[in-house]
Amino acid sequence: MHRSIVVANRTLDSDELLRLVRERTARGPAHFWLVVPASTVQEPAANEVPIPMPVMGGTPPLPLAPEEARQLAQARLDAATARLTAEGATADGVVSDADPVRAVEEAVAGGDFDEIIVVTLPPRLSRWLHLDLPGRLAARSHLPVTHVALADV
Known about the structure:
Layout: E1 2-7, H1 15-27, E2 30-37, H2 66-86, E3 90-96, H3 100-109, E4 115-120, H4 127-130, H5 133-141, E5 145-149
Parallel strand pairs: 1-2, 1-4, 2-3, 4-5
Helix pairs in contact: 3-5
């Protein structure tokens, strides 16, 4: 059975991830371990236009409180697990450390995996890509890393 770690947050419900999961399961038995960092930093969704702050006296959005971040990550995990399972995939996962590198390292240490799948917002919006998350995970885990970016709007 092919075992993949999927690290995602805002992108867990994406059609791009669903397509990749379908491709992997078409090849044979596959298991997807979803790792959802409980990030207090909320990136804009792919269809949102970033607004420079402050705008006309506006204030930048406040980061989420840690407990609120965990609740939001858990809701995303539950929805993604249900969606992938409904598609016939074997999927479960965990809400983890806010740092995606630490979150994946914890998952790798706890299991035997064949690859890491990183699902990000489009390159112009993705903080994870600006931090070279796919490259950092490949170097630290010594596992193949597949990067899936949402389409830019």
